[in-house]
Structures are given as structure tokens and as C-alpha cells.
Automatic annotation (TrEMBL):
The gene is fdhA. It comes from Ramlibacter aurantiacus. It holds the Pfam family AlaDh_PNT_C. Belongs to the zinc-containing alcohol dehydrogenase family. SUPFAM superfamilies: GroES-like, NAD(P)-binding Rossmann-fold domains. Residues 181-249 form the Alanine dehydrogenase/pyridine nucleotide transhydrogenase NAD(H)-binding domain. Keywords: Metal-binding, NAD, Oxidoreductase, Zinc. PROSITE patterns: ADH_ZINC (PS00059). This is Formaldehyde dehydrogenase, glutathione-independent.
Amino acid sequence: MSGNRGVAYIGPGKVEVQKIPYPKLEDPRGRKIDHGVILRVVSTNICGSDQHMVRGRTTAPAGLILGHEITGEVIEAGSDVEMLKKGDICSVPFNVACGRCRTCKEQATGVCLTVNPSRAGGAYGYVDMGGWIGGQAEYVLVPYADFNLLKFPDRDQAMAKIRDLTCLSDILPTGYHGAVTAGVRPGSTVYIAGAGPVGLAAAASARLLGAAAVIIGDVNPVRLKHPQDLGYLTVDLSQDASLGEQIAQHLRVPEVDCAVDAVGFEARGHGHEGAQHEAPATVLNSLMDITRAAGKIGIPGLYVTDDPGAVDPAAKRGSLSVRFGLGWAKSHSFFTGQTPVMKYNRDLMQAILWDRIKIADTVGVEVITLDEAPKGYAEFDAGAPKKFVIDPHGLVPA
């Protein structure tokens, strides 16, 4: 049996690489699962959702092994696995899904009804998501493998494009989901809140869907330089000019057709003073302000039911001061929740393989070793405009 190491959450602001058990073909409750496979991890990404836990903004327990953005090579398969074989390189949707329940059959794999005893929806390495061990590790278990895994058609081609393909497990489908649910179509004007990796993935997705103008906003001016270099329009929310005023500077009108919240519950206020303080409903309220009547708002940004570090008692329970009456008056549509990755990942794989989208360049992929993961977490938390991708076995080509 091989050894294994993984990135563990120790406490607020601290992670470390630890020796952890080599995975078995067992679920978190100790039941044998012949439908699972064990992967040698090829690449595994640090996500903003991981940072929420590492900052102490969830009820994640110390010792949790992190990592839900996984790409790997099959090295062992259970007896019920029929469509995969040893050596296959696969993308792992961050949703753990059974493929058998009502919601899975409806393609709502983000809220699978069977993989988490506590509530609908499961994920690897995440608090309250079923206890599935995370993949910021050398080896990881994937259950219901025939259903969950997206096998790449050619190993050499996959490894040559692994920096892009690693984004299929979460970030690219999540950004794409935000754009799709916001109603982006050819000719749309789109505003995306947040210039982090998910926001940049949403921007790239909006372009892929044919948007005429894509505007990205952030309270951190440093994060806006990269999208500017890529040709996106930007607004600096640390400035005192309102969001609508800054949008009008680009579009001549203070509104857009579609909007995407790629920030979530740790949002900060707008303006020179506001950007210094957390104001969790800021993004949602600002999007209602600048989205046209009968427009749509996609909300892939994470919101939680329990936030120990929230700014007020209501927000600690996930209750925010959202101007819902404004959204009702403007007949807005809102779409929330975990991205059902399998709804999009095969098509997005094709877009990558045929060079229709270069997502690694867009989100600033930087490959690091497993031992460099704590440093990657610290840099990402400090606002580095990068997407850190962990390469546990040195398999990613230089």
C-alpha cells in the first residue's frame, strides 16, 4: 500500500501538509463501494471556497483535508466500474453525486440526495458536504466513478493542455454557470462582480457565449490589471463614483443586460471607505441597481448558512439585508446554488481542446508543488491575482 499526504485545515489562517491514510474503496461511513475508483492526483486547485474555511468563516473542523478541484489518473477501480480503466486521465466534478436520485436525473448534481446524510449536496474536502476526503493530496477516492468522472479522450493531448483542463472540475463550469443563468447571449452587455478566478472564468464564459461587452468590477485595483490586459472593461469599486456611473462611462447607460455575482458572502462595501469594511449584501444589492428591468442575475458566488466570523448576528445565520423589493419591482430573475458541473464540463472540455477558450491564461494559473500549498494559500488570501494549481507528483509539463 502506498503512502499519502494531503493539505489539512489546522485553524483560522493555517494549513499544513500532513501524512494521511491512503484511500480505500469505502464511503465516509465505512461502507464498501465497488462503484468507486482511486486516483493518483495529477492536479488539484486552491479555490476561493477553500479560503472561506481557512479564514475561519465556516464551521469546518480542524484536520479537514481540503480540495474539491481535482484531476487525476485512475490507478484502481472497483468491481462495478465498467467505463473506466487504469491509466485514464479524468476530470472530477467537485459535486459528489450518485447519478441515481431524482435531482441527479434532473442534472441538478449539486444537490444530490444520497451522498450527504446531513442535507442535499456533497463535495470533496468541504465542511458539511458529506465527509468526502479532499483531493489536495497525492491520492483520492472518487465514488460512483462511471457517473462522476469525465474521461479525457487522449492522454497525451490531456497532459499537454492540463493547465486548462484542470479548471474543468469547478472554476470554469462555475463561471460558465453564472453567465448562462444570467442569460448571457450574443450581443449582451454583462457586468461581473469580482476579478478573482471565478469572476475571470465568468468573463471568459460570457465572451464564449457571444457577449458584446463584458465589464469586471473589484474593490482591489491590483486585481483589475490582468483583465484589462486581456481586453476586458473594468470598474474600480474602491473609487467613490457609483457602480452605475462607472458602467455608464463604458456603455453610455448605467445598466447592463446581465449580471454575475462572483464574490459571495465575504463581499466588501463600495467606495474609498466602504471597501475597507465587510458588507455581505453589497454585491447583490448593487447588481439589482444596475441590471435592466426583466434582466437576470447569476449567483455562483458562495453564500453559507453559518458564518462564525460574520459582521452581525443576522449574517452569522446567513441572513443578509438584501433589497428584495427592488429585485421584485424590476422583475429580476435570480439563480443561486452550487454549479452542476456535469451539465457543462464535456462541452467546455471540447472548447478547451479545440482552442475556443484559453482559461489558464485568463485566470492566471500558477503551478506549485504540494509542499508549497501553505504558501499558495497565504498568497491567494493576500489577493494575488493567480489561480494556484497543486502538482503533487510533478506530472504537469514545464
